[in-house]
Design a protein that fits this description.
Distance between the termini: 10 Å
Largest sheet: 6 strands, mixed
Order of helices and strands: EHEEHEHEHEHEHEEHEHEH
Structural class: alpha/beta
Radius of gyration: 21 Å
Shape: elongated
Number of strands: 11
CATH architecture of the largest domain: 3-Layer(aba) Sandwich
Helix content: 25-40%
């Protein structure tokens, strides 16, 4: 069956001429964007209940833009003035770049990993005397605390925000040829919103091993998968699939 419509379970990219724009133009398909999950900040009271005093930390581990936003939000709510001596360990350049929204770069000590959390670990290991705070969501990959425990640093996790399933009830009678997922939470949202969902001719596209696992366990048929050596991005995987079925 030919593909005419695609629903991507993420916000629409803010950049002009994104890979999705090129896909739409080349394949003449309709692509809609709708976040199946969203992030909500927890209250400062909840952070206090986790026995977290921001005065006790000398370094912050930031794994995402959300962790940046919610660390500074909580600091403001707690009337905590972040000292100039605070060190920041950012998982990627994108996170470090985003940090500039809150701090003046030249005045701060900022350490940047390449891309994955494990690539940040050697940098953290060099500063064993620091007291690290990891602001995170309620859903944290088990590999993160495991990696920090293995290098024996003084660290504490704080749940500063949580992942919440979005209300998709307005999509009940809307049908797409392909649904695109990037996380197990997206699959969970689909099934929570539509417990009677029947896949039938709908194609499911998934990104990453954990999403593959969640979709398989939910009994969904996976038609498109990324990343692979041939198609490292989701748009490339979609392009390849659409080209083959829309002949």
């Amino acid at each position: 069956m030919k593909v005419k419509t695609i629903l991507v379970s993420q916000p629409e990219p803010k950049v002009e001429n994104s890979p999705y724009s090129r896909l739409i133009e080349k394949e003449k398909v309709k692509v809609d964007f709708r976040p199946f999950i969203h992030v909500e900040g927890v209250e400062a009271k909840s952070v206090r209940q986790q026995k977290i005093d921001l005065n006790n930390f000398t370094a912050i581990i930031l794994t995402s833009r959300n962790s940046v936003d919610h660390f500074f939000r909580i600091a403001e709510e707690m009337r905590f003035k972040v000292p100039d001596t605070m060190k920041y360990f950012c998982q990627s350049e994108a996170v470090a770049y985003y940090l500039q929204k809150y701090v003046v770069y030249r005045k701060r000590k900022i350490y940047v990993g390449k891309r994955t959390f494990n690539e940040l670990i050697p940098l953290i290991k060099k500063y064993k005397d620091e007291k690290f705070l990891l602001p995170s969501s309620d859903a944290l990959k088990a590999t993160v605390p495991q990696a920090l425990d293995e290098i024996n640093v003084d660290w504490k996790r704080g749940v500063f925000y949580k992942t919440v399933i979005s209300d998709l009830s307005d999509l009940r009678n809307v049908y797409y040829d392909i649904l695109v997922f990037f996380s197990p939470s997206g699959i969970e949202s689909l099934l929570k919103n539509f417990p009677d969902f029947e896949q039938k001719d709908t194609r499911i596209a998934v990104f990453g091993n954990s999403t593959v696992k969640a979709a398989t366990e939910a009994g969904l048929r996976i038609d498109i998968q990324a990343p692979t050596p041939e198609t490292p991005s989701m748009t490339m995987a979609l392009q390849k699939y659409i080209t083959s079925v829309n002949k």
